[in-house]
Predict the structure of ABC transporter ATP-binding protein.
Amino acid sequence: MRYGTNDVLHGVTFQARRGEVLALLGPNGAGKTTTIEILEGFRMRSAGRVEVLGTDPAHSDERWRARVGVVLQSWRDHGKWRVRELLGHLGSYYADYSTELIRRPWNPDELIAAVGLTEHTDKKINTLSGGQRRRLDVAIGIVGRPELLFLDEPTAGLDPQARREFHDLVLHLAEKQGTTIVLTTHDLHEAEKLADRILILNAGRIVADGTAQELAQQIAGKDEVRWTYGGQRFIHQPSASTPFVFDLFQRYGAAVANLEVRVSSLEDTYLSLVQQTESHPSRATGMNSSKENQEEAAR
């Protein structure tokens, strides 16, 4: 993707597999939202090939759009509508795209129950709290029972309780409804909790692709074990921390003191990759943990 002479995306290549939750991480300006908007069909790419649900989003029709759900970072329209009447109205647009396999739209009352807004069915939207409004945003995004749901910074501005409830809702959609979910976030804990697979985007390139555990092991390095024995402080990075600690106690027993095991984390991975890319931009490509992700453009 190019704006004028500025390339904001460079050969971004990945696949989102059916039924998975895929998180797209990266610092501000990395190109996350631009990538999502291209996949949604809201923005035209400058070059390359994109396929979403078997269709190029740049040339999609209403039937394709009925299969895709979008939850934007924020929007504040329709404040005077009541929850149920808005969902009923928006759902009516999907009726013509119902199939034998997927009945569209979602029944408003069932949908309201699914997102946890039953007690607020008849409330005006402008009276809802931030967490309740975010649940409504998701309800709007899935009213047509999408096969693929895009979430752009879904929990920005939510308090911890609302964020936890939102996470539960996303996991329910993926696990119980079989919805494929692609989300962008700055929250590393959120990505680790929700995502089956994580992409890290920096300087317009994908610099890593894998599960949180895979990325931590392959990029951030080994776990670190620290302990004190005989008044001396020791630090070691074993290939496997659990058997190492077990052996340590077998050998020295209660003489081992101040034991700490620091497990490699997604945060370590993220910071390491961002720092590497900023120091050596040319190394941004080639850090993907899965060779198959080089095969074809975003599917």
